[in-house]
């Protein structure tokens, strides 16, 4: 049996527009980096968003958090969910953000569809580098690979169904040693 775990935080201003974040939880071995560092990041984000909600906060758009099953066996969990919800997702999804290997090094690695290049650059400038409080993630990125934004293609992770089946702008990010 394949079981995805899906959580929805309804948006306040645009509840019918979705920002989807996902990570898989299955692994070939113990999976410290792939997928558990990404799962830890997703769970931490879920906890922080939950705390904000208890204070009355609601996001502008609906946020959908997805913990996929069976990624290692052919991206089955995410692909089946995308296929099952194709009509809704194509008309409502703004972007999909995938965190497969959340941390496995000390440099920022980012791949995206072209629509999200500028957003990726601008957002990384607003996030502090956790290892150097005087720098941003953007600065770390420039130091690690000179801002090369890779292109999402192939079937490497759960972004595949979003990009290749229904054409959703997507990002894959990690702290990586390449």
UniProtKB/TrEMBL annotation:
Residues 4-173 form the Peptidase M28 domain. It comes from the Eukaryota. InterPro entries: Peptidase_M28, Peptidase_M28B. Transmembrane segments: none annotated. Belongs to the peptidase M28 family. M28B subfamily. GO terms for molecular function: carboxypeptidase activity. Coiled coil: none annotated. This is Peptidase M28 domain-containing protein. Pfam families: Peptidase_M28. It comes from Aegilops tauschii subsp. strangulata (Goatgrass).
